[in-house]
Amino acid sequence: MLEYITDRAIYEKVVCEHIPKAARFLWLATADLKDLHVDKHGKMVPFLEVLSDLIKNNVEIRLLHAKEPGKAFRRDFDRYPNLINGIERILCPRIHLKSVIIDGNFAYTGSANLTGAGMGAKSTGKRNFEAGIITDDTDIVAKIMDQFDRIWRGQHCKECKRKQFCADYKDLLLK
Asked: Where are the domains of the chain?
């Protein structure tokens, strides 16, 4: 399957349909990270609650993001204490990719950030115009995973010209 999706379909297919089904791991990459709310059994909850549920089910979560999230995100984060040790994260100012990789057999890549206007449940008049692809094609999923993993391992760090803005640079070099 290789499907081009836009706008609300990103929320419905990636966030609501696929992410909650993660069984082993979930890798998320986003430039911007904000308080995102999603439908969970007919109730709007912070997306962080979905991630907390996955952690309770022993799903490993990795998050690459470009900047610190806002106050509302941090406030919601504190409501789910298992996120502190349950999410591995790297903050890299060069992150601009937006990807979701689930269990190595499904991926989204496109323009939508992990924000309400990007991947969230915002109404048509409030959400961004977004586009991307979802796929279970093993070759494409492997390429998306490889890009994420190269960044995760710090492969680009030594030559990076933005180290002064990178809070995690020293930790990446120790990996």
From this structure: 2-174
What pTM, to 2 d.p., does this model score? 0.92
Distance CA 47, CA 40 (A): 9
pLDDT tens-place string over residues 75-99:
999 999 999 999 999 999 899 999 9
Q: Please say whether the beta carbons of 106 and 13 come within 8 A.
A: no
Residue 108 β-bridge partners: 100, 134
Task: Specify the 3-state DSSP secondary structure of 64.
Answer: strand
CATH architecture for the domain at 2-174 = 2-Layer Sandwich (3.30)
Contacts (Cβ under 8 Å, ≥6 apart) of 151: 29, 64, 90, 92, 95
| Rounded average pLDDT over 109-133 | 93
